[in-house]
Amino acid sequence: MPNQHEGSAKLLAADSFRVRRNAQSGEAEVRGGRAHLHRFELAVREATEHSPSLVALIDRFLADSVQQISEFGTGWPRLELWGTGSDLSADNNGDHFELRLALRALPTLGAGVGLRTAVAIGVQHPERKGPNIARYAELNRHLEAEALLLDQHGYVLEGATTSLLWWEDELLCAALPGQRVDSITEAIVLRYAQTQGTQVVHANALPGDLAAAEVWAVNALHGIRPVTRLNEKPLRAPREDRLREYTAALDRSWRPLRKN
Question: What global pTM score does this model have?
């Protein structure tokens, strides 16, 4: 798998999702597969300023990728857009951009995660998955925890690799959209909550506001993980019946990738 900077190339957009092999049908399954493909397509269009050459290639690339991912089976594939020229703001002949597929083994899955705040790290395009992957990975290694990313006012945005949800009694909260990646897994969880009559709000929250809350870290790889610590202080233990319910609901969203 290439690094975020490979020679003169730069990773401009990416999307990854967990794939499992259905034990009965043998089909490769994904949670929110169509949404992941659509998010990547939108990121490619935005990153290339709707380059005609890339727009013409994207449908074929995605179709070929779905086939290869399905044949590969269980894993953690990543769709990638690389900028390969010195001038990445223009694309006269399609020479400055390259679509790639990385077929990767499934990493070890975790049951819980700790957070540490990271302030004013100054990334570009925080709303797009891809350009900041290497920066966030290095930040997590440095902190020895999942980085809790904050906006310029100190409000919670997301984890470096996760979206964050928190419970205030029976109210389910998520950070405001806009300065963070739109999480497919978060959307699945919030839709289920709404079908159950749970009130869902998007709100500003300071890290201190999470200290008294039940906090979940959600993403396509691990699903739902309770956040166990924030800046080395223990957080409220999850309500186990609720965590089981929502984990089961998320698991019901597995669908064959080739039929998404």
Answer: 0.92
